[in-house]
Specification:
single chain; alpha+beta; wza like fold; Outer membrane lipoprotein wza fold like; five-stranded mixed β-sheet; 10 helices; 17 strands; rod-shaped; disordered C terminus
C-alpha cells in the first residue's frame, strides 16, 4: 500500500494521470480481499541446479523414513517465494489447512509425498507458477528414536529435523563403562539391521555418525567382561574392549596383581558351559613363572583366588594372628 501511495502522490500532479490512477485504485481495491494476490504473475521459479542436486540424496532418505502423523507441527516453504512460509499442525483426522489451497490430507505421507501434494495443489490455483515446496517437521509427539542397552539413560528420544547417531546417544546420557563400540540400529523400513563399529578416536568418527530417523531402535551392546574376585589388588569387572581376547596372565595384571595373602595353589576359573558352571583350577605361581601355558579367557569368566588364612593373619599383625588361631581352634579350655 505504501508503494501505491507513492505512485498516486507522484502522479496526481499530472491531470492526464487522474483516470489511470482511478483505474489502478479500483483494481487495488478489488484485489484487497485476496490474501495472496501479490503471488499472481510470479515468473516461473528456476531452482539452483547445484543446490537441488546437493539436497537430492538427503530428501530421498528423509522422505523414505519420515512421515507426517496427527499432532505433528510442520513448516511449509516455497522456493523463491519468501511470503509463503507457514507452520501448521496436523489435526486428529490427519488433515490441516494451508493458505491458498485450504484443507489438505497429509497424515501418513512421507516428506517427499507431502511436498509433491502441496506443490500440485498450489500449481492448480494458478497463484504460484511452478512451485517447489519444502516440508520439514518442527516438533512431533510421535517421532521418537529408542536407545537401549549400555547407555546411562535408556529410553525414547524425540527427534525432528536432521539428527545423527551421536545426537541420540548424547541425549541418552552417553555410554556406560561397559558399552561396546559395536552399535546396532534396527530400522522399521529395513529388514537388515545396521551395524556401526565406532572408532576408539572420536576424531575419526566421520561417516560412522549416520542419520537416525523416527522409529529407529539403537542398541548399544555390552562389551565382553571378565570378573576378578578374591586376593587381587583390584577386584571387579574387566571390560574386553573391542571384544579382544584376554589371557589369564593379562587379567591378573589388569587387576593390579595378586596380594601377599593369596592361596596361590587353590585358585580357579569359574566358567559357564552347556552343563552349568565348571571350575578350572590353576596355580598362580605356575602361571606367573610360565611353567604352564597361559590360558585364554572367555566372556563372563570369573577368576577367583582364595585367601590363605595364615598369610592374612600375618599381614594383619598380632591381632590378626590371634583371630586366626581362635578361628582355627574354636575355643581354649583353661583348667
Amino acid at each position: 500500500m505504501k508503494l501505491a501511495a507513492t505512485f498516486f502522490s507522484s502522479r496526481m500532479s499530472d491531470p492526464r494521470s487522474i483516470f489511470t490512477c482511478a483505474t489502478l485504485g479500483l483494481l487495488l481495491n478489488a484485489c484487497s480481499g485476496v490474501a495472496f494476490a501479490q503471488f499472481l504473475g510470479t515468473p516461473p521459479v528456476t531452482p539452483d541446479p547445484s543446490t537441488d542436486s546437493a539436497n537430492a540424496v538427503q530428501r530421498q532418505e528423509r522422505g523414505q523414513f519420515s512421515s507426517l502423523l496427527p499432532g505433528d507441527l510442520f513448516e511449509v516453504q516455497v522456493f523463491g517465494v519468501p511470503q509463503y512460509d507457514y507452520k501448521a499442525r496436523i489435526d486428529d483426522d490427519g488433515s490441516t489447512s494451508l493458505p491458498l489451497i485450504g484443507k489438505v490430507q497429509l497424515a501418513g505421507m512421507s516428506m517427499a509425498d507431502a511436498e509433491r501434494s502441496i506443490a500440485g495443489k498450489l500449481a492448480a490455483t494458478n497463484n504460484i507458477k511452478d512451485p517447489h515446496v519444502f516440508v520439514h517437521i518442527v516438533e512431533s509427539p510421535n517421532h521418537f528414536v529408542t536407545v537401549s542397552g549400555e547407555v546411562k539413560n535408556p529410553g525414547a528420544i524425540q527427534v525432528y529435523g536432521d539428527k545423527y547417531l551421536m545426537d541420540v546417544i548424547s541425549a541418552a546420557g552417553g555410554f556406560t563403562p561397559l558399552s561396546s563400540p559395536m552399535l546396532t540400529i534396527y530400522r522399521r523400513a529395513s529388514q537388515t539391521p545396521i551395524q556401526i563399529q565406532l572408532p576408539s578416536d572420536p576424531a575419526l568418527l566421520g561417516s560412522k555418525n549416520i542419520n537416525v530417523y523416527p522409529g529407529d531402535n539403537v542398541v548399544v551392546s555390552k562389551v565382553g567382561v571378565i570378573y576378578v574376585l578374591g586376593a587381587f589388588h583390584q577386584q571387579g569387572a574387566l571390560p574386553l574392549r573391542n571384544n579382544a581376547q584376554v589371557t589369564l596372565l593379562e587379567a591378573m595384571s589388569l587387576a593390579g596383581g595378586v596380594n601377599y595373602e593369596a592361596a596361590a595353589n587353590k585358585a580357579y576359573i569359574l566358567r559357564s558351559g552347556p552343563a552349568g558352571q565348571v571350575e578350572i583350577p590353576f596355580n598362580v605361581n605356575d602361571v606367573l613363572k610360565h611353567r604352564v601355558a597361559d590360558r585364554v579367557l572367555l566372556n563372563e569368566d570369573i577368576i577367583l583366588i582364595p585367601t590363605n588364612n595364615m598369610r592374612a593373619a600375618l599381614k594383619g599383625g598380632a591381632a590378626g594372628v590371634a583371630a586366626s588361631l581362635l578361628a582355627g581352634i574354636g575355643y581354649i579350655t583353661v583348667k
